[in-house]
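Go through this:
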Amino acid sequence: MFHVKICGVTTAADARMAAAAGADAIGLNFVPGSPRCLAADVAREIVAAIPEDVLVVGVFAGTDPGDIRRIVEQVGLDAVQLHGHLAGAGPVDNPETCAALAPTPVIRAVRVGADGFAAARGWIASARGLGHPPVMAVVDAAVTSSTAAGQLGGTGETVDWSRFVAAGDLGIPVALAGGLTPANVAEAIRATAATAVDTASGVESAPGRKDPEKMRSFCAAARQALAAVAP
């Protein structure tokens, strides 16, 4: 669905710079409490500012499917990324939410659990049984105390790329995320043979504020490494 995604874009200027840097997708955050969370009218201005061939993904966690559909229509989103937990406490996105979003393409954020990726495989299978499985998974390979405390990403500090390799049997395309920066994205791609990458905090000067040079460096390094591992 994408090769290089810059997530957590908050301004039209940052969106234009991300596209110019070489990102083929941007993520717009609609998770309350996130420093990158957007109102629908601001998100609509961002979508209007970028080329039509840049994929626009809306990121949600535990949001009612009807509310997601309304934002998809209001903003002009191309796809939805469900970033809530698979089950348990905190914001949860279950397979029924995925099915309720048809025909909008859905990307599923996945974190490794005590059972590895068994829960994620079960979630994807359930969504498939409901007729609308996710088209892609984004695997968070970051290892942070914040994530352990229940946060949903965007705080990556260190990376365990073996987590991503273990996700190869999810049955759908997988993107690598979590702790990726201009300095390590090429190494990460070489280590995992990833075909897509996703970053947010790794190209920021402050939460929600993208750094133009970091975006250019990240996209250039990622695209060069992706070309080298392409079959």
Notes: The domain at 4-229 is CATH 3.20.20.70 (TIM Barrel). DSSP finds nine helices and twelve strands in the chain. The CA atoms of residues 14 and 210 lie 6 Å apart.
